[in-house]
Amino acid sequence: MRNKARESNAGIALRLQDIVDRLGGTLRGPGKTLIKRVASLKNAGKGEISFLSDLRYRPLLQESRASAVILPADSPIFTTLPAIFCKNPYLYFAEVAILLAPKVVLSPGRHPAAIVEDDARVSPMARIDAGAYVGHRTKIEAGAIIGPGCVLSDDVSIGKDTRLHANVTIYEKCSIGQRGIVHSGAVIGADGFGMAQKDGRWLKIPQTGRVLIGDDVEIGANTAIDRGALDDTIIDDGVKLDNLIQVAHNVRIGAHTAIAGCVGIAGSAIIGRHCTIGGGAVILGHLEIADKVHISAATLITKSIRSPGTYTGAFPFDEHSQWGRTAVAIKNLAEVSMRVRELVKSAGTSTVRPAEPATRKARKEK
Amino acid sequence: MRNKARESNAGIALRLQDIVDRLGGTLRGPGKTLIKRVASLKNAGKGEISFLSDLRYRPLLQESRASAVILPADSPIFTTLPAIFCKNPYLYFAEVAILLAPKVVLSPGRHPAAIVEDDARVSPMARIDAGAYVGHRTKIEAGAIIGPGCVLSDDVSIGKDTRLHANVTIYEKCSIGQRGIVHSGAVIGADGFGMAQKDGRWLKIPQTGRVLIGDDVEIGANTAIDRGALDDTIIDDGVKLDNLIQVAHNVRIGAHTAIAGCVGIAGSAIIGRHCTIGGGAVILGHLEIADKVHISAATLITKSIRSPGTYTGAFPFDEHSQWGRTAVAIKNLAEVSMRVRELVKSAGTSTVRPAEPATRKARKEK
Amino acid sequence: MRNKARESNAGIALRLQDIVDRLGGTLRGPGKTLIKRVASLKNAGKGEISFLSDLRYRPLLQESRASAVILPADSPIFTTLPAIFCKNPYLYFAEVAILLAPKVVLSPGRHPAAIVEDDARVSPMARIDAGAYVGHRTKIEAGAIIGPGCVLSDDVSIGKDTRLHANVTIYEKCSIGQRGIVHSGAVIGADGFGMAQKDGRWLKIPQTGRVLIGDDVEIGANTAIDRGALDDTIIDDGVKLDNLIQVAHNVRIGAHTAIAGCVGIAGSAIIGRHCTIGGGAVILGHLEIADKVHISAATLITKSIRSPGTYTGAFPFDEHSQWGRTAVAIKNLAEVSMRVRELVKSAGTSTVRPAEPATRKARKEK
Q1: What number is the ipTM of this complex?
Q2: Nearest to C313 among A102, A262, A315 (CB)
């Protein structure tokens, strides 16, 4: 088993015409141009294809030594390079990247240094790497890969073709669907932070729920998803979580939502489908976020969001000395605002015209 | 050893009267009602008990199919369900949950695939799981559980009945008291971030202190607690740390303080007893926080806090476009504040009345 | 191999004169005073040396029972203790600490419970601890230490004298230079968070770049550094990363930059040399930060910074009730600012004098 990891199609090459035949788009230039890899406009060379989505980067296109380039269907022609014109160059590029990516094929089997309990139900078509531990009654389906050093406790379920990279930990009774990817250091199913106070001490509330993860979910390195207290923590199909994210107990994340690194989500928050959450955002607990909500980086969400849209709350940065002056002004802001109201009142409506354009309050009243 | 993990009281059931006999409270309804599990009002069914603390949730109570419910002693009666009336329903519920929770009994012993140095001092009543490593002179007391893949370096000490879940790392000379719980991925005793600059490069300062952790401490998944530079980093009895928390070198956290996920605490900060710190807060170094201080989520603490109370500092979120206008206004805030002072001065005291109610400054002067 | 870890110079002691001979500075007092350890002013006793950099701490000096103390060259003499006067007491102290620190010498060799693929290229002078896994073609140079439970995938390269503490994960093709230190739980080379949207679902873009780490780099516990999407993620020589940091794909961090805990750096950000970034800061992607930029804790950087200097953006904390008033005022700030402009306009230049001292705008126009 040890020497069978290999890149099955290292050296694959597609002609431009092959690519267009598979993915669509309009080709301009010689269809027989060979493409072996995707690359950035800046670094691409012979045998490599790049793309341009944002016309601001067109100077990079002029200088690019790529063998071909993917361009927006309606773009004026800036280049003499062979080109594929399509609706969404970034997506097209992604699809070409997938076509050309070396597929790592890891042979199934159980490494002699893996420890698998006798009553675990491991498909012979799954792969269990060195030093991994698989607990009692844990079920691992065909095509799944359990990396070195992973620990799967009892009664865990890992779906078809799901890959756990090295050193992932899954607590008892949690499950992951098909085609998932879990990166190293991720911890799934640790106890939620549930406590009641008794005489100044904290009494631990047993956390008896599970973590249920759907299909096509990716979980980043060192991300933690806690098991539910009573009911389950649920991560729906197609959710993508970046690194170092905290998902507390009983959180529910709707399908196809993507969350960037370092986000913290407190207990019982319910997040909709097709949302995006920027890095470092903090979502408080016991609130609901609608579908198609986009939260900016480093934003604190303190209450439910009922309508799709983009929401932001970050303090703008500045040179330190100017920030210091601003910070002092903020400390006094409530008072200053009151003084302004007084001034407006004493100035009377004749001298101070109503603010234009529409202010926040006016807008809200519509 | 491998097949001995089991739930010793799966299927336990208590009569309502048994519960009241043990935990107090006033019973209304048939004392022989059997209770097997706790559950949320929404999901509870036959054999399950739920609770209501906040009267806003009373509609859930009306619809609940729980076999019994825990209610505040002084609450008007909203339900025909069998009920226990008590002072603190949430705490009572926690205590019932503890009574009913299946107790996982893991038999002591050393898994053949554990690696334990010959001079380690491991109680025969401790359990060392597969793939765990126990270093030289490390002491593990009775009832302790060292999960699969844990690494305990040399001269570590683990107290009675403390459980380390899978893949925990403890550096040399660190110690944990009794009845502790450490979740997967936690790292205790890595070097503090101590450096001096020399000719534009960083010189690493040896980190020779330890991490000393008291009794009844819980540490969340992927949380990191650094060893002290000279003196020790100290986590007092009963402290509860959630996931993905950073505790820097020489921090001291007082007894029974609870800290939510994603908090960062910088070097040499001293945090009092019975504090709570909300998720994503950042505490700067070399400052002191008094006992019974509550810090809100996502708040940056930049200086010592001398009095108990609640402290907050987060930027309110808004729709993105409105946030953009606010952000511009903040950049100009110091100037605007100055203009307001000028306006107030030129308006004179005759036209602008003193702000009421009491402003911050006035309040402070009292 | 198992019993050979030892502190080779436990019990080392240097005379003050030896220290001054090696590190410079001016000695006052008996050169034969023996020094065994460094310690804080507060806790130092016989055989221990401490330092004073900041004159505010001079009361601690008066009470210190240290055997000697390191003082600024130009400081008035506050103490009768033996003293070394030098230019930079903190740096001098660090250098003494390095002289006196017990050097842990770990003998080279391969633990029988380590799993090393046959085609790995491991120096006989490297050490591979229990339960570590070393993949195909991975190269480990002399003096390197691979701690218990580490997983090094295929084609990894670890330079001379680099130490990986327990439970570090390194993905395929990544490399670390010489004299590096990587703390437990760090994950190097996981996939970047690169996706394109197709019909409401996320399409994973293959992440085919690597992570390349220079010499003398330290990486904290549970920090994650993602591999590049196409090009590589690059961490330059002498960079120091604290715990729980997220470094996204294609980030570049310049030499000798130091980054504190809980920082998140988004994709393709380029950070200069000799920068410092405070704890909990968030750096957005696709921007550039110049050399010698200092970013304060908990600051969000939303755009490129072209000039050296210190930049800050954190919301000042306050008592919760006052914060509530401030937060409301901030929600209305754009409107209040507009009203102030109206008031200034209607007041005319005759009654409202130009703001002094120089406002932000005036300063910028110079």
Answers
A1: 0.92
A2: A315
